[in-house]
Design a protein that fits this description.
It is built from ten helices and twelve strands. The protein has 280 residues and is of the alpha+beta class. It is globular, with a radius of gyration of 19 Å.
Length: 280
């Protein structure tokens, strides 16, 4: 049996945005994935869930605070329906981290080449209120507070650093990501993508399958779905309108694809994450 490749996630950030904060108040298992942003994850009431981060596989304690480097595959699996579990994910780009640490004139004090840093339960408990406050606090104050949090953890002596190999980043795939995201509401065909990359259709299809584990249409649909998920969290537009704006002309097909991707219907996703996802 061939192991599934971790899927490559493109976060729906605009040029003037650098952070996505998501409060998973009824978390479910999440498959292996990676992205070019850092991710700080706060696990609360999550004892026993199975964490996979890079080459590390272990069970979480009740409270965990973990920093994951860019392009490191990660995911988690609940052995059963969690009770009162909560997972807060904070994803941010490298420039935001550099800016945050410059404020303290500390430079980049994390070990070079790290894949994952596990902070102590003491550190996690100390930051618990500040982390969960990122969801309830006004957006304009969140960047400042998050920078303070990052400055604090760099000074934490109680941490376990893991070194590992990042997923290779392919410039052609990154450029294709940006092209597809900029044209998500257009009907981009396989031939359009081939013209953009300068590859022949057969070469392009092999390239996409090899590096994403998915054919082009599914890869493009996932980009469109991530944008539609953002619209669900940030607007009151009807699902049918969001589907159309995201390039899906068939509502039933959109609902099916969305549930396959996120495990929830668009309406249930909105009910769960509306006001619990912030992009700044």
């Amino acid at each position: 049996m061939v192991a599934k490749l971790p899927f490559r996630e493109r976060l729906p950030l605009n040029e003037d945005e650098s952070v996505i904060i998501t409060d998973h108040i009824a978390p479910t298992s999440f498959p292996l994935h990676f992205h070019r942003e850092y991710e700080l994850v706060f696990f609360y009431n999550c004892k026993g869930i199975e964490l996979t981060i890079g080459t590390i596989k272990e069970k979480a304690d009740n409270i965990e605070l973990v920093l994951i480097a860019p392009n490191i595959p990660h995911g988690w699996k609940f052995p059963e329906n969690p009770k009162n579990a909560r997972i807060l994910t904070i994803q941010f780009n490298g420039q935001f981290l550099i800016d945050a640490l410059k404020k303290k004139n500390s430079g980049h004090v994390f070990s070079e080449g790290f894949s994952t840093i596990f902070f102590s339960s003491k550190t996690a408990n100390q930051l618990s209120e500040k982390l969960t406050g990122l969801i309830t606090r006004k957006k304009k104050n969140n960047k400042t507070e998050l920078k303070h949090i990052l400055q604090f953890i760099t000074q934490s002596p109680d941490k376990r650093t893991i070194f590992g190999t990042q997923e290779k980043v392919y410039p052609e795939l990154t450029a294709l990501d940006e092209y597809l995201a900029a044209n998500y509401n257009r009907k981009i065909t396989l031939n359009d993508a081939c013209s953009f990359t300068g590859m022949k259709p057969s070469t392009f299809s092999r390239y996409i399958n090899k590096h994403t584990g998915k054919p082009f249409i599914i890869y493009f649909n996932n980009i469109k779905l991530s944008i539609s998920a953002r619209h669900l969290c940030e607007t009151d537009e009807k699902v049918a309108v969001i589907a159309l704006l995201s390039g899906f002309t068939n509502l039933a097909n959109f609902n099916r694809l969305f549930k396959d991707r996120y495990g929830l219907t668009p309406l249930k996703y909105r009910a769960l994450y509306y006001s619990r996802k912030k992009i700044i």
